[in-house]
Design brief:
Length: 117
């Protein structure tokens, strides 16, 4: 019985993660290019150490764990924002946080490797 409960919990966690990933999916390359052309603010939510190891040109480093305290510095809530991290997990969390804070034009680029070169 206990093993069945653990299996059900594991399946439920997987389903929730899968659905969250789909709902908070990443923007397409075409969408990213359009947002960049429109003057989007690019936010790298990785740590300062990761950022100093290489980042998208013009990106602003605001680590995920300090993003909530930096919201006022981002400007108007209708300004286009692009967020990225290393793999897409932190940027998905950042995109969700920004939307909940009232930012209406937020694109999750996923990992740094997905940013247009």
């Amino acid at each position: 019985m206990e093993q069945q409960n653990l299996i059900l919990i594991a399946v439920a966690v997987f389903v929730v993660f899968f659905l969250a990933t789909r709902l908070l999916g990443t923007g397409s390359r075409k969408q990213l290019l359009a947002k960049l052309a429109a003057g989007a603010l690019v936010i790298d939510v990785r740590t300062p150490g990761e950022f100093s190891g290489g980042h998208y040109k013009g990106a602003r480093n605001i680590p995920l764990d300090s993003l909530n305290g930096q919201l006022a510095k981002l400007g108007a809530t209708d300004k286009p924002l692009i967020v990225y991290c290393a793999s897409g997990a932190r940027s998905a969390q950042a995109a969700q946080l920004l939307r909940r804070a009232g930012f209406v034009d937020v694109t999750n680029a996923g990992g740094l490797g997905r940013m247009p070169g």
